[in-house]
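Subject: Re: docking follow-up (S-adenosylmethionine)

Dear J.,

Thanks for your patience while I sorted out the input files. As discussed at Tuesday's group meeting, I've set up the holo structure prediction with S-adenosylmethionine included as the bound ligand rather than trying to dock it afterwards. The sequence and the ligand SMILES I used are pasted below, so you can double-check that they match what you have on your end before we go further.
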Amino acid sequence: MFDQVLQEVEAQCRTERIPMLGPEKAKFLAGCVEEAKPSLIVECGTAIGYSGLWMLRVLKAAGSGRLITVEIDADRAAQARANFERAGMTDLVDSRIGDAQEVLESIQEPVDFLLLDNNFNNYFPCFQAIESRLTNPATVLADNVGIGADAMADYLGHVREHYESETHWFDIDLPWVKQDAIEVSIYRR
Ligand SMILES: C[S@@+](CC[C@H](N)C(=O)[O-])C[C@H]1O[C@@H](n2cnc3c(N)ncnc32)[C@H](O)[C@@H]1O
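The structure tokens for the complex came back this morning:
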């Protein structure tokens, strides 16, 4: 059932042009989660749950870890919740509706994995909103750093100056983008 839900979510994103990582970047993301073995992942920008499903599959296989994912669009968040439920992941995920920066300010637990995939100019405010609860070290991924570099220049400048940070480029087979990058930063105090 899980694979069927993932395939349907990917197909819906392609047909309705709902933004998602796509399989090339999602495989990379899953590998990062596998390596980091996080206790708590926070994702900014759920859309209808495509990237969330990829991360949840890794957490379920590992037998530990939870995901808090935030989406400002209530209709998309409702679809994501339905998709998480159909995939049998409800107990591992807390899907919240709201502005990511505001929701992140309310999270009090330690966060060891952060995925920034919401509106580009909000990456740095979101990072700053959760920074005091990031573990030492924590893995921080930012999507769309190829196509969105100008809008997130403050964020990229900060992580590249202060942390071990690498840009990973991908050829992508999506209707709306053919090449883009993910920034992987290892946050340390
Ligand atoms: C690129 S999509 C997320 C894709 C998703 N991570 C995936 O790969 O399946 C970005 C999402 O961020 C949401 N978004 C935009 N601004 C936001 C904000 N301030 N807070 C939370 N979500 C926001 C958009 O509604 C959109 O659904």
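A couple of observations from a first look. Residues 2-16 form the longest helix (15 residues). The beta strands are 40-44, 66-71, 93-97, 111-116, 134-142, 164-174, 177-187.

Let me know if you'd like me to rerun anything.

Best regards,
T.
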